[in-house]
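lol so apparently i was supposed to do this last week
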Amino acid sequence: MKHVSVMTTEVLEVLNPKEGEWYLDATLGAGGHTAALLEKGARVLAFDQDSEAIEHAQTRFATQVQARSLVLQHENFSKIENTVGSLQKTSDIGTIRGVLFDFGTSTEQLMSSERGFSFEGDGPLDMRMDTKLGVQAKDILAVVPEKQLAELFATLGGEQYAKKIARAIKKNEDPITTTAQLSGLVARVKPKKGKLHPATKVFQALRIAVNSELEHISAALPQAWGVLEPGGTLVTIAFHEGEDRIAKQYLKMLAESGAGSVLTKIKPSERELAKNPRSRSAILRTIQKVHTNQDKERNAL
Ligand SMILES: C[S@@+](CC[C@H](N)C(=O)[O-])C[C@H]1O[C@@H](n2cnc3c(N)ncnc32)[C@H](O)[C@@H]1O
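anyway here it is w/ S-adenosylmethionine bound
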């Protein structure tokens, strides 16, 4: 199954890319949003911490990479400031007209059982987006004490049965090292309700913890704002409350301080929801950087 990009029409509407302008796609993934920007004639600098996403894009976009309409960076988006700054000094990358964050995992990551992100199928309980990271999900289950494990499931996953699940993990005779072991254990401990797989929230919490996702988002947003040119637009797409809360607070602060304007929040259309159920939890937020008096004076010269 291939990743279906979320709210691409809305992303293009708010970014309004023009021929030759540079955009930063902070979360390349399967490259759907990048492809849409390139089709409009824009140039894209794309980050992903997952080497598989970068390798896939090197093949898919070989022509655009060759023509330097697309520059790929195997890098964490928490390094935007230094990476973009040095690329702008040493290469043809110009001012950045827009930045897009489409948080979370791609379908390719979820569907690959060897990566350990999914409660479906079986594979090692890994969950590292960047395979250079040291700690895997199985290590967290082995090392973190019961009380903290329960807190982790509750705060990062919103899991109601966090304490029961943490207790069962710690009481289990053998260490939990595979996705099937963990999803089976959660399904035994927790009553099944609704359509959601019982292990969804535990898997989400572990993935966020393994990849320090919320810390990286908090670090990256101010850096993205810093590299954005006046008049440029920042777009975030979040899929759960933890991600969205950070984006919402940061954008609100920018709007209140007068640094940004045109704050919008968009949900997927009924049409998109019908075609792509994964989009149901998506929230797109956007803010435009205002021109300071200094920018206006510089432009008038
Ligand atoms: C939802 S997917 C993006 C999908 C993409 N917009 C598309 O249209 O195909 C999220 C991607 O962001 C990457 N990612 C998540 N956190 C990251 C981080 N801190 N730094 C760099 N990439 C990150 C993941 O590896 C994944 O490939």
